Amino acid sequence: MKDHKTALVTGSNRGIGLAVVKQLAQEGFTVILTSRKPEDGKKVLLSMPENVYYHQLDITNNQSVNAIKDYVEKEFGRLDILVNNAGINYDTWQNTLNADLENVQDTINTNLIGPWRMALAFIPLMQKHNYGRIVNVSSGAGALEGMKGGTPGYGISKAALNALTLKLADELSRHDILVNSVCPGWVRTDMGGSEAPRSLEKGAETIVWAALLPSGGPSGKFFRDKKEIPF
Ligand SMILES: NC(=O)c1ccc[n+]([C@@H]2O[C@H](COP(=O)([O-])OP(=O)(O)OC[C@H]3O[C@@H](n4cnc5c(N)ncnc54)[C@H](OP(=O)(O)O)[C@@H]3O)[C@@H](O)[C@H]2O)c1
After folding, report:
1. Ligand 1 touching residue 189 (CB < 6 A)
2. How far is the CA of 178 from the centre of ligand 1 (A)?
3. Which residues in the chain belong to E strands, given as ranges?
4. How many CB atoms are located within 10 Å of the residue 173 CB?
5. Which of 21, 106, 203, 215 has the greatest number of beta carbons closer than 10 A?
């Protein structure tokens, strides 16, 4: 079993997830970088420091989630930080009136059920050590306050992810397991596009901050730029 505290980031072969891996590794954590396609993650791993490990992970697939759970238990014996970063489908091409519901269902499967599946897999290990930080990477598009039309699958899936944050935080309130949602802002990634004002490093910053919250810190909250925002 390795001594360092252990963190896992979903969807971390590119984009914000990869930036989170780099920052957590710099903080001295043992970090598990994950990707759907092994070749994508293994290629990225080559340029990572030695405290970064790799495992395949598709959060929509039970077998894949069970496999990484077994790997973490066997190799590290604990998981201190789970960053539910993987997300898909900023569906600007449709609205709520003409939505393709199969597409919406796929989006909910990845953006809500995936993080939920990961939480179910790893919370027992966190409870065993009475320590955990779960960061659900959400979006202002999922805030119910001031919610407008457009991007229906994405917005509704992120609103539901925020609901998952609230429910997990409440049900884990007797443990030192903090669960929060973070909006990274509009970030230059494949999803955010090249016009986005924020760098990858800036997008990762508040996610890492929420992953490092001290005991007694906030739980069941929604943050952007390290400040609470309305759900
Ligand atoms: N970029 C923004 O402006 C912005 C704003 C607000 C919120 N966010 C949120 O921030 C998070 C990261 O976004 P990003 O901009 O970095 O996106 P991205 O560049 O499109 O990267 C998404 C990552 O998620 C992975 N992924 C997708 N489905 C997966 C699955 N089923 N299992 C495991 N991994 C999966 C992708 O893997 P593949 O390489 O295999 O596709 C990729 O590594 C998302 O949750 C997004 O909703 C982004």
Report:
1. yes
2. 22
3. 6-9, 30-35, 52-56, 81-84, 132-137, 177-182, 222-224, 227-228
4. 12
5. 21
pLDDT at residue 28 in the model:
95
pLDDT in tens, 87-100: 999 999 999 999 99
d(CA 231, CA 172): 19
**For position 4, what pLDDT does the model report?**
62
Pocket of ligand 1 contains residue 89 by CB under 6 Å: no
Give pLDDT, residue 2.
44
**Total domain count for the chain?**
1
Q: Which of 88, 183, 207 to mutate to test the pocket of ligand 1 (most atoms within 8 A of CB)?
A: 88
Pocket of ligand 1 contains residue 4 by CB under 6 Å: no
Q: Which residues are catalytic?
A: 154
Residue 85, in any domain of the structure:
yes
Q: What's the Cα-to-Cα distance from 87 to each of 81, 170, 172, 224, rounded to whole Å?
A: 18, 24, 24, 17
What confidence tier does 1 reach under pLDDT thresholds 50, 70, 90? Answer: very low
Here the CATH number for the domain that contains residue 47 is: 3.40.50.720
Cβ–ligand 1 distance for 39 under 6 Å, the answer: no
CB-CB contact of 84 with 9 (8 Å): no
Q: Is residue 1 part of a domain?
A: no
For residue 17, being part of any structural domain is answered with yes
Please report, rounded to a whole number, the percentage of residues in the chain having pLDDT higher than 90. Answer: 98
